[in-house]
């Protein structure tokens, strides 16, 4: 990879929308742009570690974004514990048919939520998701299957 800042910017530019979507999904309470910026700084400092034989630029950048989103989510959680907040009485939006997808997704394990976010919200393939999650493709498929089964139960609406 070229180490000229302009070349790096051109190299990451096509991947910025996917990085922003993944950051927003994985760390909804953090500033999406901050997460992406931190991921870009990390990618720049680690650019010599990128190996195209191990995965696409997109998968490498999204793996970094996922890691930075996890760190941002942890910071937000810690800071929210420090602040004593008053319950505003607002609840998460629920669709007309009673389905609360946000609450159901929150009940998935972190690994299941990452797999669902990568595949269904960021539009990554199973192979790219495996690179982001740093696991085998079979693990991604299994994790998605488990997540769908859990969501099926959580989202079951009695008609």
Automatic annotation (TrEMBL):
Query: RNA polymerase sigma-70 region domain: from which residue to which, for each copy?
Result: 12-73
Q: Which UniProt keywords apply?
A: Sigma factor, Transcription, Transcription regulation
Top-level taxonomic group = Bacteria
**Which Pfam families did the record assign?**
Sigma70_r2, Sigma70_r4_2
Q: Spell out the molecular function terms from Gene Ontology.
A: DNA binding; sigma factor activity
- Which Gene Ontology BP annotations are present? DNA-templated transcription initiation
Annotated ranges, domain RNA polymerase sigma factor 70 region 4 type: 100-151
- The question of whether Transcription is a record keyword is answered with yes
Q: Provide the protein name.
A: RNA polymerase sigma factor
Which organism is this protein's natural source?
Lentzea tibetensis
């Amino acid at each position: 990879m070229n180490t000229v800042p302009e070349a790096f910017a051109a190299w990451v530019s096509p991947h910025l929308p996917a990085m922003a979507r993944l950051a927003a999904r994985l760390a909804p309470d953090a500033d999406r742009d901050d997460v992406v910026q931190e991921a870009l700084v990390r990618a720049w400092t680690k650019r010599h570690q990128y190996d195209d034989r191990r995965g696409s630029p997109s998968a490498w950048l999204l793996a970094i974004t996922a890691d930075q989103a996890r760190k941002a989510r942890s910071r937000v959680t810690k800071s929210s514990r420090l602040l004593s907040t008053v319950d505003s009485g607002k609840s998460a939006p629920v669709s007309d048919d009673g389905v609360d997808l946000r609450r159901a997704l929150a009940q998935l394990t972190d690994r299941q939520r990452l797999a669902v976010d990568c595949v269904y919200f960021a539009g990554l393939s199973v192979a790219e998701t495996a690179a982001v999650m740093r696991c085998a493709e079979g693990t991604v498929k299994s994790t998605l299957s488990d997540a769908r089964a859990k969501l099926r139960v959580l989202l079951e609406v009695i008609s």
